[in-house]
Amino acid sequence: MAIKAGEYFQLKSGEARWTHAKGEPEGVDEVVLHRHRDGSYTHVLRVREGVKFAKPVTHEFYEEAYYLEGEMLNTKTGKTISAGEYVFHKPGEPHGPFKSLKTCLILEFRYYK
Q1: Which of 92, 3, 97, 14 is nearest to 54 (CA)?
Q2: Residue 5 lies inside a defined structural domain of this protein
Q3: Domain that holds residue 90
Q4: Dihedral pair phi/psi, residue 84, rounded to 5°
Q5: Closest by CA position to 104, among listed 87, 54, 34, 61
Q6: pLDDT of the chain along its 113 residues, tens only?
Q7: pTM of the full predicted structure?
Q8: Is residue 74 part of a domain?
Q9: Which residue in 1, 81, 107, 108 could disulfide with 72, CB within 3.0 to 4.6 Å?
Q10: 87: helix, coil or strand?
């Protein structure tokens, strides 16, 4: 599912078609909102309570994440990321490992420069 220019979408309306987020643990689903030709995309991640990301994460894209709901614990730093918080990661920057304390909805922008 991708939203076309000028379209509106209501995430909690039942229109959302959640699919497992490729490469992520079970319990991590996504709705892709828009995908660009260069591979960049915007999506909403749903991370179920109790999901663990056992190892730190690194990737080749920039990542901006805004937590709409829930709580995520960075098990390395002890920092809890809660609804209303924003996180930015550069390509190659290790982050995590994580554990979802409460089911999270995360608006993410993944892009290349």
Answers
A1: 97
A2: no
A3: 32-108
A4: 95, -5
A5: 87
A6: 567 788 777 777 567 889 999 999 999 999 999 999 999 999 999 999 999 999 999 999 999 999 999 999 999 999 999 999 999 999 999 999 999 999 999 999 999 98
A7: 0.90
A8: yes
A9: 81
A10: strand
Q: Are strands 28-35 and 19-20 parallel, antiparallel or unpaired?
A: antiparallel
* Residue 84: exposure state from Cβ atoms within 10 A (0-12, 13-18, ≥19): exposed
Enter the tokens of residue 18. 């959640």
For the chain, percent helix, then strand, then coil, each to nearest 5? 5, 50, 50
For the chain, give the longest Cα–Cα distance.
41
Looking at residue 60, what DSSP letter applies?
Answer: S
Phi, psi of 86, deg, nearest 5: -120, 140
Nearest to 25 by CA among 2, 39, 42, 46: 46
Instruction: Please provide residue 13's backbone torsions phi and psi, each rounded to the nearest 5 degrees.
Output: -85, -10
Quick one: pLDDT at residue 11?
Answer: 75
- Quick check: is 4 in a domain? no
Calculate the CA 70 to chain-centre distance.
Answer: 12
